[in-house]
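Quick one before lunch.
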Amino acid sequence: MSGKLRVGTGYDVHPLTAGRSLVLGGIKIPFEKGLAGWSDADALTHAIIDALLGAAAMGDIGSHFPPGDPRYKDISSLLLLEKIRDELTKNGWQVNNIDATIVAEKPRLRDFIEQMREQLGRTLGINVSQVSVKASTSNQLGFIGRGEGIAAYAVATLEEK
Ligand SMILES: [Zn+2]
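Model of the zinc ion complex:
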């Protein structure tokens, strides 16, 4: 390892609502509800984007992709992640690893974790072994426990190229 190592954190939450697709880590998950938001509302990918931007001290997702901008209406958040990856590369950063946790009471996400890791790794141009995704619940407490929303936390480290 040669260059500087930097760490960043990200957090995101979106409300669950009927009539939307549930997309987490770029993977469509069969469920009766989906996350509401301006883009596809992929809370996991958004938390990862914020962690990457935080590590590079390059602002946050809202400053790069303002909600209300028609270019980003219902856009796949993987495309946003790709743009951030390119900006990081331009600034001399390389993604070292990602560790993320989704907090959702329902649905059960375990069967989709591997697909999410592979998809996120592919999008970031890193190996699946550098991407960790975990799923947790809030033990029926609070808005997540009542099934009103899904949250995601992420940590990312970047290495200077
Ligand atoms: Zn979001």
